[in-house]
Amino acid sequence: MLIGDLAALSGRSVPTFNREFRRIFGASSAQWRKQRKLDQAKGLLENTREAVTGIGLAVGYDSTSHFISAFKKQFGMTPGQFRAAIAAADP
Q: Residue 54: which residues within 8 A CB-CB, separation 6 or more?
């Protein structure tokens, strides 16, 4: 769903919607959406054996390299490194 659609559903203009969203959630709607996607990916990496490529696609990234880059920027390691760290910590 696009921001314009959400603004219309809430009965607000796009600038008003964006301003109120940032005030309530402490981030822009784009930042918030990106964080939700990466949190979902993190959960999938922890709880499934799905390939990194499949997880990136499942959470909404069209490019595996973009997914890996965004994940590393957010969590300080690539999805593969994250999964390896979980495996090493799990006896």
A: none
